[in-house]
Amino acid sequence: MTGVIDVVVDTEANFAGIVARDPFVLDASLEKLAPRWSAEKDGAEDLQDFMNSVHLQQTESFEHELVEEGSGNTSSEEEIRTISAEFRTSMAAHAAMEPRAAVADVGPDKAEIWCGTQDPYFVRARIAALLGRRRADIVIHPQRMGGAFGGRVACGAAEQATRLSAMVGRPVRVQWDREAEFRNSYMQPPFAHRVSAEVNAAGTLTRWMQDFVSAPITTGPVSALGDGMSQFIAAGIDWFSADTGTARGAEHPYSAAIQRIRYSDIRTDLPFGPWRGLGAGPNTFVTESVMDELAEAVDMDPVAFRLHNLASGHDRLAHVLKRVAKLSGWAGRASQEASTGAQGVACGIYKGMTYVAAVAQIEALHAQREIRVRKVWCVQDCGCVVNPDQVRAMIMGNIVWGCGMALKEELTLDGTSVRQDNFDTYEIMRNDACPDVEIELVPSEEPPAGAGEAALVSIAPAITNAVHAATGNRIRRLPIRSEDVFI
User: DSSP letters along 344-387, please?
Assistant: First the structure.
């Protein structure tokens, strides 16, 4: 075809590409090439299999133990209330404004790559391995990028451009379109949790048993592109270590005489990797949902119940929880029953250094079968704040992102492909649906800590706890489905 320079097919690398002088001939030439792709497994069924936490609990085959404290049963003399529940969160996309792109110029002695990446050193190592060259011979030029949020550690477009440039001997640009971005970049993995917790009549947490299943997140991008060497490296990593990104936020700040928290991080053929907050969002959603339910079981105010059960050494978390209650004019549970609008509260510690609490005000629109988040109050203690405006902007981004996590964002599979490949099917928060926001930063002389992901952990559970206060229905899976609320 006129304008086509070369066609590159490498079945061992599971790769096919066309190099053309004019990008406008690419669509027509791809139709002429008519590649056919096959998948040996049904991804949807396999995913449900590995996410079956009940099965794993029955077989006692959890890979990692985070917490094991105390043993035996709680005192038979105490009046005990028990909560047992299962929770699920879905796969999610980064949905960045700018689909990824890269330019590669592979010469005989040096290769230069221009791409948007959060980790140019990781990309350099991948390119060096792909070309079989020294890292010193690879130059990465990081570019400004339209959103990352964990999604631009690996850069598939850079590796594709490198392969093509090496084969045709000239600079090549690869520009993903929106559909390619959704279908080919790595995702937040789904989580499945099972929790059984006990509290006595005095409102003291006595027992916490939790098992959960997900996929490797921190090391997910190692195998994200599926070549043989990457799969071999990933298998070695999984043999020697647990994925801390998957477990992030699972060790909660509450005290219980008997505790056990276990998990499995099971690698699959699906490309998973870091998504804002990694496991902290799903894991804290579960913790704060259970704490809210336990508070109700003993007829205690949710804020007071959390403060009563905080482990020692968490004064900073207690402070932000008290501050957000005051800032929001926390109404308490009793005044919210049978109301169409209500408040919910949640809190958390991000990476052991940033303390955050939030209250969400929601409205349940029964006629439209819709939940609207009207306002979010957030108090954050991230140590000494150098640039308050920047930190407030990051918190606001986390609040909007957390609303999307709770209400809208979900990827589902059709075989081994994602069904949602653009913003008409993968919904993010729009301006008219975003809540009013009020933020308070705690003055502190503690060292500065991270602020870019911390607030996310408290938003979804604050919303779902508010949904329960408004409707009486507990939310066990995200995003919230109308059939779980308007029964």
Answer: EEEEEEETTTEEEEEEEEEEEETTTTEEEEEEEEEEEE-SS-S-
Which of these, 188, 298, 192, 199, lies nearest to 245 by C-alpha position?
A: 188
- CA distance linking residue 379 with residue 391, whole number of Å: 12
Distances (CA, A) of 389 to 385, 392, 441: 10, 5, 10
Which helix (H) or strand (E) element contains residue 289? helix 280-297
Q: Does 230 score more than 70 pLDDT?
A: no
Q: Tell me: the pLDDT tens digits for 42-60?
A: 555 556 666 676 677 777 7
User: What is the enclosing helix (H) or strand (E) of 87?
Assistant: strand 80-89
pLDDT at position 222 is 65
Q: Are strands 4-10 and 15-20 parallel, antiparallel or unpaired?
A: antiparallel
Query: For the residues 174-195, what does the mean pLDDT come to?
Result: 91
In the numeric block, which tokens belong to residue 153? 């550690």
Indicate the pLDDT class of residue 240, thresholds 50, 70 and 90: low
- How big is the chain by its Cα radius of gyration, in Å? 24
At 197-227, the pLDDT tens digits run 999 999 999 999 999 999 899 877 666 555 5
How is residue 311 annotated by DSSP? P
What separation, in Å, do the N-terminal and C-terminal C-alpha atoms of the chain show? 58
- d(Cα 358, Cα 363) in Å, to the nearest integer? 17
Higher pLDDT, 44 or 62: 62
Structure tokens at 369: 């079968």
- The whole-chain average pLDDT of the chain stands at 89
Is the pLDDT at 7 greater than 70? The verdict is yes
Cα distances (Å, whole numbers) of residue 406 to 10, 101, 359, 373, 476: 42, 30, 14, 10, 11
Maximum Cα–Cα distance for the chain, whole Å? 85
Contacts of 442 (CB under 8 A, 6+ apart): 316, 319, 320, 323, 355, 379, 380, 381
